[in-house]
């Protein structure tokens, strides 16, 4: 019986990989096994010639593509029957399949199909147990590879790995080298996943926006999922300073959720929208979990800003840990259900993230940023101690004064143990430095108003 055929050359690696991204669900262990062992084209040939007959029906006892049971099947199962069961998952999608249509849609959208091993393929994806077959990208795919990796591939030119638009094509791919439009800074194009709850609070939204903006201004690239809440705030914050990357659970032709279409359009214009499924695919619930592994894999570190106890953002955090990535979490009010997931991560060893310096320290190589040193130098954070910068005599006088009430010079003399002359001289110095003031009732400490109500 004549085998079923597809209306294009399945020996073309791009067409074969794109076809598998349509046939199999993301993170499919079985598809990853077959394609990984045989290659995308021979794996397709097995499905078309061995597993399915000319009418598109799955054969009851096909020759196994590899001499072992598919993942997840019972160990005592019949190997041919098990592979027939697997083929039955893919066969229905063969009907009317012409992946060139999806590629035409991508082309009309100005997008790119990125294959493993190509210059813009994020190397972190190769660390996944089941990496994507390809990436469908709208926007600038060069952002998916940081400056250091571009330099390793011989594409670096100038600061932060910039390569001019008129540079030569990448050898063997025909792909032009694009200029990386990342701000120069210690993060130097490194990807930071910033994720969190859809049902976010104003506190979480403010933190996410601030972190994303601050990290991008220092050269980092924010990666998130384009969802409502924290994801959207991460993208908006990043867009204030540079590009950002959004990883979609559906096809890149569908700006989902519709309520974030404006943000996603800005992401495409400035950065990149990425998916591992072709245009036309719906963002099903199961695909969001698979999408999270891509976010974690292409990023050097992951930070969670607000998450419920069973938040989907925690799956991104767990994937990051599995891949050996750095993980941080933003603490929230102990009474907030929106932060219990973050507190759960912190108890298990995630790094506490409170500002941009913390995020940069997590993202950059060890020693590049010292967040604690930066805080020590911040007068708002250090509090400018009461006695800082004072000589011993002035310190004694100021320390002898009541915290709130006024005191006479004589009272301060007795409390400080200094002579009247020493006390008077010190009070004059303290008045000039703004530490004390003279009032009708005596000398009083000055308490400048500060944010947070600190004295």
UniProtKB/TrEMBL annotation:
Example GO BP: DNA-mediated transformation
Stretches with biased composition (Polar residues): 410-426
Region (Disordered): 156-175, 410-431
All residue ranges annotated as the Smf/DprA SLOG domain in the record: 191-363
Coiled coil: none
Domain DprA winged helix: 388-440
InterPro entries per the UniProt record, alphabetical: DprA (IPR003488), DprA_WH (IPR041614), DrpA_SLOG (IPR057666), WH-like_DNA-bd_sf (IPR036388)
Family: Belongs to the DprA/Smf family.
Protein name per its UniProtKB record: DNA processing protein DprA
């Amino acid at each position: 019986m004549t085998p079923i055929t597809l209306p294009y050359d399945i020996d073309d690696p791009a067409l074969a990989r794109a076809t598998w991204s349509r046939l199999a669900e993301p993170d499919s262990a079985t598809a990853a096994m077959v394609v990984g062992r045989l290659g995308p084209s021979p794996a397709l040939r097995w499905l078309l010639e061995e597993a399915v007959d000319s009418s598109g029906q799955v054969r009851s006892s096909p020759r196994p593509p590899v001499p072992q049971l598919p993942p997840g099947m019972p160990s005592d199962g019949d190997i041919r029957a098990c592979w027939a069961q697997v083929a039955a998952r893919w066969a229905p999608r063969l009907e009317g399949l012409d992946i060139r249509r999806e590629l035409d849609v991508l082309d009309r959208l100005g997008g790119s199909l990125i294959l493993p091993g190509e210059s813009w393929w994020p190397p972190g994806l190769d660390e996944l147990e089941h990496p994507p077959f390809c990436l469908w990208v709208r926007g600038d795919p060069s952002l998916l590879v940081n400056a250091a990796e571009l330099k390793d591939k011989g594409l670096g030119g100038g600061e932060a790995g910039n390569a001019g638009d008129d540079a030569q094509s990448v050898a063997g791919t025909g792909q032009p080298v694009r200029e990386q439009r990342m701000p120069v800074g210690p993060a130097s194009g490194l990807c930071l996943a910033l994720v969190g709850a859809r049902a976010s609070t104003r506190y979480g939204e403010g933190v996410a926006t601030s972190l994303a903006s601050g990290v991008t201004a220092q050269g980092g690239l924010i990666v998130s999922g384009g969802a409502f809440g924290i994801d959207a705030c991460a993208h908006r914050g990043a867009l204030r300073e540079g590009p950002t990357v959004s990883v979609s659970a559906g096809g890149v032709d569908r700006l989902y959720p519709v309520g974030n279409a404006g943000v996603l359009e800005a992401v495409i214009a400035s950065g990149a929208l990425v998916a591992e499924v072709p245009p036309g695919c719906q963002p099903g619930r199961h695909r969001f979990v698979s999408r999270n592994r891509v976010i974690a894999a292409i990023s050097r570190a992951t930070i969670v800003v607000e998450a419920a106890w069973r938040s989907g953002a925690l799956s991104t955090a767990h994937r990051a840990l599995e891949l050996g990535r750095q993980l941080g979490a933003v603490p929230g009010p102990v009474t907030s259900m929106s932060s219990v997931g973050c507190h759960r991560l912190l108890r298990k060893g995630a790094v506490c993230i409170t500002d941009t310096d913390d995020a940069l320290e997590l993202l950059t190589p060890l020693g590049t940023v010292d967040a604690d040193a930066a805080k020590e130098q911040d007068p708002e954070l250090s509090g400018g101690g009461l006695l800082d910068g004072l000589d011993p005599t002035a310190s004694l006088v100021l320390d002898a004064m009541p915290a709130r009430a006024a005191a006479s010079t004589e009272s301060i003399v007795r409390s400080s143990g200094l002579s009247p002359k020493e006390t008077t001289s010190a009070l004059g110095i303290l008045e000039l430095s703004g530490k004390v003031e003279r009032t009708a009732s005596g000398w009083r400490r000055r308490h400048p108003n500060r944010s947070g109500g600190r004295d």
